[in-house]
């Protein structure tokens, strides 16, 4: 399921359309079966009100999946904001008008650029990148060098705290990128989708034409709902993804993106 939700929204839309056609075909099969049964004894089939029982369960399962997706996206947005804030504070301390440490400034800028290129763009924040780990080590070494100087203890403590918060935010970002909605919840949604169309077919057994229309309306609703949720499952890909530029702020003395890549090489 995780790989499925990683494909492009257009391809995923086609995939869900195929699923919708299959669902409709299954519904027609059950409609024909129930129609034959209704011609013999209509009283053996459930009444129309029974649809509400299964449809409500389907709607609740879909709502649980949606709630999990919006929660993950909200946490991912918060993690990106916290990482950006920590980087910004550390860069502000390393700038010429503050500590004037070009080594630390370069290490922080390279870290930010490497996160975007290696973890965000290439891996969609699903796993840590070695280049980012090396960038973190360079920041760590630069801060140790500062600590050996005459920098005030309170300022050094604040820098260490900001550095720890940056690492915690990165860990949260990677954890959210590698996790998604529990697959069993999606299986439940698909199962209840099929079960609901079976029930719709059963209550329309004596009216096949109305049954076909009801199945078509339900399947279009279910397919579009699941597709919209699926393209938002990962906070770092799809139409609702968080753009990596959130890690950049207006820093006059910080290196630009091309400059950071050039100096890193």
From TrEMBL:
<feature type="transmembrane region" description="Helical">
    <location>
        <begin position="215"/>
        <end position="234"/>
    </location>
</feature>
<dbReference type="InterPro" id="IPR025333">
    <property type="entry name" value="DUF4239"/>
</dbReference>
<keyword id="KW-0472">Membrane</keyword>
<feature type="transmembrane region" description="Helical">
    <location>
        <begin position="43"/>
        <end position="67"/>
    </location>
</feature>
<feature type="transmembrane region" description="Helical">
    <location>
        <begin position="184"/>
        <end position="203"/>
    </location>
</feature>
<keyword id="KW-0812">Transmembrane</keyword>
<dbReference type="Pfam" id="PF14023">
    <property type="entry name" value="Bestrophin-like"/>
</dbReference>
<keyword id="KW-1133">Transmembrane helix</keyword>
<protein>
    <submittedName>
        <fullName>H+/Cl- antiporter ClcA</fullName>
    </submittedName>
</protein>
<feature type="transmembrane region" description="Helical">
    <location>
        <begin position="6"/>
        <end position="31"/>
    </location>
</feature>
